Amino acid sequence: MTKELLKEKLNYSYSPFSKVRVAAVAIDKNGNEYYGVNCENAAYPSGLCAERSALFGSVVHGAEVGTFKELHIISNLNKVLYPCGACRQVMSQFLLSNAKIILHSTDLKQELTFTMEELLPSGVKEEDIIAKEI
Fold first, then answer.
1. Choice between 128 and 101, residue whose per-residue pLDDT is larger
2. CB of 106 within 8 A of CB of 78?
3. For the chain, how big is the Rg over CA atoms in Å?
4. Quick count: other Cβ atoms within 10 Å of Cβ 110?
5. Which of 25, 33, 71, 90 has its CA 20 to 30 A from that of 3?
6. Which of the following is catalytic: 51, 111, 126, 127?
7. From the CB of residue 104, how many other CB atoms can be counted at a distance below 10 Å?
8. What family is this protein classified in (predicted)?
């Protein structure tokens, strides 16, 4: 993954309403890369963020949920853009516990790195929702 390729993916964002373009790449434990961009819809909540687009789209290509070691995010806002709460929750299920989330500024000069725990302390995990017999 090159930062320039990630930045190039901003051109594929479908964001006619907000004009905010976001691209993400999820990298699994085997080094496979899965790209996604944000896609908006006139019924505003029906759109999808780039992070979830990359992660959900990876499944159709055979990626294994829970095996991602990195997630890179970039936007056209000329600053680092943090993932929303919904994306953070999805990321907590797809990413390894020691995965890196790397946020890039549009000019690629600023880069912030976080762990999943830093971005979403005590997120809901699969084992939290499995029904248990009493």
1. 101
2. yes
3. 15
4. 12
5. 90
6. 51
7. 20
8. Belongs to the cytidine and deoxycytidylate deaminase family.
